[in-house]
Design a protein that fits this description.
With about 140 residues, this protein is of the alpha/beta class. The chain is built from one helix and 16 strands. The N terminus and C terminus are likely disordered.
Length: about 140
């Protein structure tokens, strides 16, 4: 006779949040999980997980996230820690900062883009770089 053992259910802290089509949210959102927008989001988003903007979704504001997949409309500044994917239906206006970028044929992007490993170095050295510039200016005086 073979006995089956029950495996423990994973109760991790990861969560998934959605704004459905027909829903409008005006305000800021922060989360440790993933976030999907199929409606309209006006405001800033700060998440550690993945942001998905569906084909009918629209985001207006600044976003900081772990990774992102855009199929809808985005307007603002987008800071992505890993991979940003712009699908063929994506319409993006604003500045992008990411490590990796994937752009499908048909996607539209208007703005500036900073990408690659240098971006991480710039983010890490940003404060020290400002301090060095200030000290050089004071030495010249």
């Amino acid at each position: 006779m073979i006995k089956k053992s029950k495996e423990a259910v994973n109760t991790g802290q990861s969560s998934s949040n959605r704004i459905l089509a027909g829903t409008t949210i005006d305000g800021s959102v922060s989360s440790d999980g993933d976030f999907r927008v199929d409606g309209l989001m006006k405001g800033d988003i700060s998440i550690t997980g993945k942001l998905v903007i569906g084909e009918k979704g629209k985001v207006e504001g600044d976003v900081k996230c772990g990774s992102a997949n855009v199929s809808g409309k985005f307007s603002g500044n987008l800071l992505v820690d890993e991979l940003l994917s712009l699908e063929s239906t994506a319409r993006v206006e604003g500045d992008i900062t990411t490590v990796k970028l994937s752009v499908a044929t048909g996607a539209e992007f208007s703005g500036s883009c900073n990408m690659g490993a240098v971006v991480r170095e710039m983010q890490n050295d940003d404060k020290t770089g400002e301090q060095k510039q200030k000290s050089k200016k004071s030495e010249a005086s």
